[in-house]
Amino acid sequence: MKNIFFTPGPSGLYFTVEQHLKEAFRSDIPSISHRSKAYVKIHQQTTEALQKLLQLPDNYTIGFTSSATEIWDRMSENLIAKHSLHFVNGDFSKKFHSAVASHGKNAEARIAIAGTNHDLSKVEIDEKVELIGLAQNETSTGAAMPVEDINFLRSKYPDPILAVDAVSSLPIPAFDFNQMDSLYFSVQKSFGLPAGLGVWTFNDRCIEKAEKLQSAGNYHDSYNSILKIAKMAQKHQTTCTPNVLNIYLLGKVVQDMLAKGIGQIRQEAKYKSALLYNLFESHTKLKSFVSEKKFRSETVGVAEVEGGSEKLIKALANKGLHIGSGYGEFKNQHIRIASFPTHSKEQIEMLVDEINQLDF
């Protein structure tokens, strides 16, 4: 029985990863030095492919970390002297707020009920706020912030560093990177790779802020601080021994996505998410957790299950179809289904058909 993973991360591997892994081992990629010319070439090819796929402006740097979670600490240490503001609407946006607070910063949380989102057109932000954090796609609840809402927030408050969590949505949203300063993700979700690599994109405003804090003595100079990441990135290197294999694989998968075309990938994402939400709305025992369509994620569909989710999850797993349980307090009440670029339209159609046929 072949297993298909619709879990929201780690998720199914991108369908070309197996062939790239074989080539990586044939070429001894896992054994090369991260200070070698061979690695520099891999690093450069990966970052240039990402710049093209995401359409990053020239003033952006791409850095690699151990995970997206690490980036919360780096931003806390390097981009905030005292005050940050966090739009919290689920467990992962809450964890970013908690991470900043644990560093002794004055981290304010604006909290929306899980399954909903903030109306950014109505928010008022104090001028003392240095960094605004928000999850464009809250993986725990399936609530997504429309890109145009993020752009509006930036136009209204251009001074604070705007840091966006796109861990489970990139590359589907068409971000305007001129309307933010920092965007980060990890590779085990939409990019369909093994876990163990975070990707941090940030612009020159972040570097200038870090330099200012460093001069004022409010900068924590860790081994992977933002200024060190930026300095080494200019040489297509990292501050410490990186996950060379995953950086190599990321470059290959991004090149595959470029060959397919980001327009087609985004069009397929709309179709697949429409299938899932139609299932949630038509099935007598399922209900979309995010009721307002404007805020429904295109990559992580979350539904409440009448009577609990355990029976449905187990029945699908017996067929080799693995979906996610609810997160945190919703573990036994919800299902979470990823429809990432690696998940074909046919796979999502099959999953929907199987759920419709099951008695749970």
Question: TL;DR?
Answer:
This protein is α/β, with parallel strands linked by helices and 360 residues long. It contains eleven helices and 15 strands.
Terminal residue distance? 22 Å
CATH-level-2 architecture of the largest domain:
3-Layer(aba) Sandwich
Shape assignment: globular
The major sheet is characterized as: 7 strands, mixed
Structural class: alpha/beta
Count structural domains.
2
Mean model confidence by pLDDT: 97
CATH superfamily of the largest domain: Type I PLP-dependent aspartate aminotransferase-like (Major domain)
Could you name the key traits of this structure?
single chain; 360 residues; alpha/beta; Aspartate Aminotransferase, domain 1; Aspartate Aminotransferase, domain 2; 2 domains; 7-stranded mixed beta sheet; 4-stranded antiparallel beta sheet; globular
